[in-house]
Design goal:
With about 325 residues, the chain is mainly alpha-helical. About 65% of the residues lie in helices and about 5% in strands. The chain has one domain: MetI-like (MetI-like fold), CATH 1.10.3720.10. The protein has 14 helices and 4 strands. The strands form 2 sheets. Strands 1-2 form a two-stranded antiparallel sheet.
Length: about 325
């Protein structure tokens, strides 16, 4: 407010037009900034809201509706109540798919974050040439379609692929024969798919952590080293507390990727051998389009959505803290 406006306010008691209060019904007084009404902002975001509602909220609502019916997708539907949700947790195959999901969360989320932390902790103490190239190579799997990733890793895990070839050389050198049909083995198929997820997600976690490390004041590292802190103590005292927000983002994104993982499973193993690599996202497709259990498929999808919200909320509470 200018000095002239202040003098006018003192003499007349009237506020300048730019910050003049509006008296509404009921005696309330509400100040309004000059220019357009705030309600006009809804018009700007209305097209995005319409698209969001048409392609996300409406299908989600219909999915919730179908989950309470038994329907094959063609004939008439019959009311099922909560039986589809009950089947989701009582059917051994479906219950096993959620168990496989927990295993994939370890490979898709926890392992990539741990490996990225090790890389970032090492690089925060020394300067490495070609950092841009190194970062690009690690992030490259993120921009490759998962279908292409699945086809490539099918060849890597094949009988005459690189993995078995290297293991054959080790066997010729006197070590035990560790060669397997990795994607066709009941024991190793799920970990083999999980390692592909680890390879894909390391780059995302690494880029996020490297961006976070750059905003940590260098004085903290210098003070820790002056106090005699080694690499491990420096990591837990400086690096890890400074990367809490980046860790929350990385865990959220990678966990989301593991929960909605379908294309890699579909292309690499098709859920096999047997039920060894079936996950809830694959079961949504399988039950809806292969066995004609649309209601059950919708119930699995809604359960996945609730699980995703719960996991992301828990990550935010545990990593960022309650007070932030």
């Amino acid at each position: 407010m200018t000095s002239v406006a202040r003098q006018k306010t003192r003499k007349t008691g009237e506020k300048p037009p730019a910050i003049r209060a509006e008296r509404r019904a009921g005696g309330r007084v509400k100040s309004r900034a000059p220019g357009e009404s705030r309600n006009i902002g809804w018009l700007y975001i209305l097209p995005a809201l319409l698209v969001y509602g048409a392609f996300l909220l409406w299908p989600l609502a219909r999915g919730v509706q179908f989950s309470f019916y038994n329907w094959d997708g063609l004939g008439s539907a019959t009311w099922a109540g909560l039986s589809n949700y009950t089947t989701t947790w009582t059917d051994p195959a479906l219950r096993g798919s959620f168990g496989h999901l927990l295993v994939l969360i370890v490979f898709y989320s926890i392992l990539p974050c741990c490996i990225a932390f090790v890389l970032v902790a090492a690089m925060s103490r020394t300067k490495i040439r070609g950092m841009t190239f190194f970062r690009t190579v690690l992030f490259l799997p993120q921009v490759i379609a998962m279908v292409a990733v699945a086809v490539a890793w099918q060849w890597v895990y094949s009988a005459d692929g690189p993995v078995n070839t290297v293991l054959g050389w080790l066997h010729d050198a006197g070590l035990p024969d560790w060669r397997h049909g990795w994607l066709g083995d009941f024991t190793f198929a799920l970990p083999a798919v999980g390692l592909v997820g680890t390879w894909v997600e390391i780059g995302l976690a690494f880029v996020l952590f490297m961006a976070g490390v750059q905003r940590i004041p260098r004085e903290l590292y210098e003070a820790a080293r002056m106090d005699g802190a080694g690499p491990v103590r420096e990591f837990f005292s400086v690096t890890l507390p400074g990367l809490r927000r980046e860790l929350a983002v990385a865990l959220t994104l990678t966990t989301t990727m593991s929960i909605r993982n379908f294309d890699l499973i579909y292309m690499a193993t098709g859920g096999g051998p047997g039920n060894a690599t079936k996950v809830p996202a694959y079961e949504v497709y399988n039950r809806t389009f292969n066995t004609g259990e649309v209601g059950l498929g919708c119930a699995i999808g809604i359960t996945m959505a609730v699980l995703l919200f719960a996991v992301t909320a828990a990550i935010g509470r545990l990593v960022e803290g309650k007070g932030e």
